[in-house]
Specification:
The structure is a homodimer of 262-residue chains. Chain A is α/β, with parallel strands linked by helices and 262 residues long. Chain A is built from eight helices and 14 strands. The first copy, chain A, has a single domain (5-258), classed as Carbamate kinase (3-Layer(aba) Sandwich), CATH 3.40.1160. The interface between A and B is large, with 40 and 40 residues.
Amino acid sequence: MEIKKINVVKIGGNVIDDPEGLERFLKIFSEIEGPKILVHGGGKEATRLSAAMSIETKMIDGRRVTDRQTLDIVTMVYAGLINKRIVSLLQRLGCNALGMSGADGNLIPARRRSPSPIDYGHVGDIDPHKVNKDLLRVLLEGGITPVVCAICHDTEGNLLNCNADSVAAALAIAASSLGRTVLTYCFEKAGVLADIDDETSVIPLVTPSNFTRLKEEGVIAKGMIPKIANALDSAGKGVAEVRICKAEAAGSDAGTLIIAGE
Amino acid sequence: MEIKKINVVKIGGNVIDDPEGLERFLKIFSEIEGPKILVHGGGKEATRLSAAMSIETKMIDGRRVTDRQTLDIVTMVYAGLINKRIVSLLQRLGCNALGMSGADGNLIPARRRSPSPIDYGHVGDIDPHKVNKDLLRVLLEGGITPVVCAICHDTEGNLLNCNADSVAAALAIAASSLGRTVLTYCFEKAGVLADIDDETSVIPLVTPSNFTRLKEEGVIAKGMIPKIANALDSAGKGVAEVRICKAEAAGSDAGTLIIAGE
């Protein structure tokens, strides 16, 4: 079977932490036609569970430092609680979801990040070329929708806490070899905004050349710069379209489109 | 592809709670040839997590009463922590494990148990005929080893805490339509013992007729009676062999063999 188009959609805490918003999003996601993959982050649930167990949450530059206890917590919350909640809701909506971590079926091998200059603990980085494309193909051709959390493994028996944006990018790059792939990052805003306070000021298209100009003009700044740089990187590695939009717009043409061409 | 023989092995808390014993068992399990499925219970980890969160664990007749909070805890522990720990260890051993709950790919639909006479909360019962055999076939033919926890779903968006012995029996009964299936319950003893204090007194064979006699003579009593009745039930529903043995003997001919014939 030839796969024509594959959608990879990533949702983060802003969707996961709002039960009604999550149900609304999952309804929209379930209606996206064709093969699709959902990647989810963790939201505040892991921090809540840590607090309930009196374990301190330590963040450096917005990334969770993952000691042994914290690895257990994120494995429970991401791969267990959130993943199975999403799977059961999608099943109700008639979407044949199958929840996975990157360890399952060796979907996403990762490498533990070097402890210097900063030791993040059990945290891993992903090489998109190592994603198990054969498994992706079998699942997508079988009408199965993988629901993937960002817990991966080093193939030596150790789980690793990875970045969900990177998991989505790696899966989209791998999926590109199976069919035309669209990667959507769901975001709290309607897209990349020219004016941060104006939701109607969505920049419809970012390419490598206007990205340079928009950065120089200070229109795209701070946290958006690495996000768009990563999107352009995925586009350069075969992903046909990367989109940044609100969760409700997943699968549509709304938001900011990021492509590798001019 | 025709599947010749399928092994379904169930482990419980006595194996899961002992890290070295678990690794020893997984090494043996990974070496079992041909298609195989591992089903695991939860052990004491869920009770420990409940205690750490100051949530009371309530048991009736040895079964966990599963209120909303407890459902979250068992989902985290069974489908997250224990499942992914086992998967990553099997991956290291070269066994292509893929962790699942019964909600994933709609593998095991279940029905919430009636609240009367005893309300166990979010607890489900399984009809073996509803197991998703097509998914089992795709996975087993693909060289994938499903690692299944006992969290199932009602197909209406609700997760249900089920009995791991029943999950193993349902999967084995379903697998029987794909190939000759052997179901092994790993146990703390070497098998069904004629003398509970003598590990060498393993009863090698139980059939419906000698089961009746062994019960009358009081050799098989108490907790073993429902265990063997369930094993005989599975055997009567197509499972070629049911075996009760130590975890280290999984895949071998040791322990007690339970078959439906004379």
